Amino acid sequence: MTPTVSASGLTLRYGGTVALDDVSLRLSEGVTGLLGPNGAGKTTLLRVLATAVPADRGAFTVLGHDPGTTSGRLDVRRALGYLPQTPAFHPDFSAFEFVDYVAILKELTDRSARHREVRRVLEAVDLSDVRGKRIKRLSGGMRQRVGLAAALVGDPGFLVLDEPTVGLDPEQRMRFRELIAESGVGRTVLLSTHQTEDVAMLCHRVIVMVRGSIRFEGTPAELTARAAGRVWSSTARDPGARAGWRTGTGSFRNVGDPPKGADLLEPTLEDGYLLTLDGEPAEVAA
Ligand SMILES: Nc1ncnc2c1ncn2[C@@H]1O[C@H](COP(=O)(O)OP(=O)(O)OP(=O)(O)O)[C@@H](O)[C@H]1O
């Protein structure tokens, strides 16, 4: 697939902390999930790609634009929709007013065309009915949808979403996943998350970051396959297990190096992810 976003050698330090350590990647149309433990550098990578903070070293392009130049940076920002981890809503704004405000910042100067666009994105995230309500009166799920609507203003080709499903109940999360999946049609979406189900359900590619570096890049099926033959059931926690827990049925589910003749279980993406975190060598799948 043709890459729409390419980065090479991105490095960023905060004092003695290396938040990004020589990160290179290629993204294409569709939803790519970014997994990694707390402090792995996910937010930092998203902020760099969203031109919110410059890297110390390295380069990247977004839809052919180079943010290393002043005009290229503007072009990247025009092509970008960014939903940060904690969006800075003005709580007294209505959903419409907030998205309209973002549309003004995105240089949609013609008032009636802009209002049409604001109505379009609010409709796309299913908020038309509450567009006049103040943001402080909306539920957490609705607020996240206001943030997504703001990110979608102007139909950006590259959408960056930082943990958008955090704090949502299962029903809201499912609805939000549907919206992200729709947003990924004909567009490049990079989504950071701690939810392996988000990745299993809606991503066509997945990147795993650990301590500022990319540990794995490939399809969700390839990440799951890393745990093939390495998940098993037992009556007590197995010493060969890198992770193991008692399940609701009373038996143990173990992930790691199974003993001979172990009762193997079907692996999940989470199992592949756990093994990738746990000192597995880096792997970049084609
Ligand atoms: N503004 C900052 N000043 C100093 N250190 C920072 C700053 N932002 C991030 N860091 C550090 O850089 C590293 C990467 O942080 P980052 O927030 O990118 O990780 P993350 O994978 O997004 O974590 P989380 O899942 O908890 O959001 C961490 O060690 C963090 O403490």
UniProtKB/TrEMBL annotation:
<dbReference type="InterPro" id="IPR027417">
    <property type="entry name" value="P-loop_NTPase"/>
</dbReference>
<dbReference type="Pfam" id="PF00005">
    <property type="entry name" value="ABC_tran"/>
</dbReference>
<dbReference type="InterPro" id="IPR003593">
    <property type="entry name" value="AAA+_ATPase"/>
</dbReference>
<comment type="similarity">
    <text>Belongs to the ABC transporter superfamily.</text>
</comment>
<feature type="region of interest" description="Disordered">
    <location>
        <begin position="238"/>
        <end position="260"/>
    </location>
</feature>
<dbReference type="GO" id="GO:0016887">
    <property type="term" value="F:ATP hydrolysis activity"/>
</dbReference>
<dbReference type="GO" id="GO:0005524">
    <property type="term" value="F:ATP binding"/>
</dbReference>
<protein>
    <submittedName>
        <fullName>ABC transporter ATP-binding protein</fullName>
    </submittedName>
</protein>
<dbReference type="InterPro" id="IPR003439">
    <property type="entry name" value="ABC_transporter-like_ATP-bd"/>
</dbReference>
<feature type="domain" description="ABC transporter">
    <location>
        <begin position="5"/>
        <end position="236"/>
    </location>
</feature>
<dbReference type="InterPro" id="IPR017871">
    <property type="entry name" value="ABC_transporter-like_CS"/>
</dbReference>
<keyword id="KW-0547">Nucleotide-binding</keyword>
<keyword id="KW-0813">Transport</keyword>
<keyword id="KW-0067">ATP-binding</keyword>
